[in-house]
Amino acid sequence: VQLLESGGGVVQAGGSLGLSCLVSGLALSSVDVFWGRQEPGKEREVVATLRRGSSAMYADSVKGRFTISRDSAKNTINLQMNSLKPEDTAIYSCNGRKHGASYWGQGTQVTVSS
After folding, report:
1. Rounded-to-integer distance, Cα 96 and Cα 51, Å
2. % residues pLDDT > 90 (the chain)
3. What number of other Cβ atoms are within 10 A of residue 49's Cβ?
4. Which residues, in sequence order, are CB contacts of 83 under 8 Å at separation 6+?
5. For the chain, what is the largest distance between any 2 Cα atoms, rounded to a whole number of angstroms?
6. Dist. CA 93–CA 2, nearest whole Å
7. Are the beta carbons of 20 and 68 closer than 8 angstroms?
8. Is the pLDDT at 29 greater than 90, yes or no?
9. What is the pLDDT of residues 56-109, one digit of tens each?
10. β-bridge pairing 108-113 and 9-12
11. In this structure, is the dihedral angle defined by the CA atoms of residues 88, 94, 96 and 102, taken in order, positive or negative?
12. Neighbour tally for 106: CB within 10 Å
């Protein structure tokens, strides 16, 4: 199983970025998917969750600004980030979980300048 993120970069506060995670070796239609982020020296936090058969859920810090989605045909997990803030700066990683197994990508850096 491999997860490969893309779409990170540098953006000014108030701007938008779209992240994508290409998954191989795992059918997204059968797993719960997540996006997490980690700042240097801090624990990773899950910011967006999309479980099978359920509506998306978001951390309070990103609610109303981020949108998680899955494209089962392309086997990608996506995260649209709008109205970005400097405190959104972190390494963003995608995650797929099935039957107790958890798979993380290596992450992509998102930097929001003020």
Report:
1. 10
2. 91
3. 19
4. 14, 16, 65
5. 42
6. 12
7. no
8. no
9. 999 999 999 999 999 989 999 999 999 999 999 999 999 999 999 999 999 999
10. parallel
11. negative
12. 11
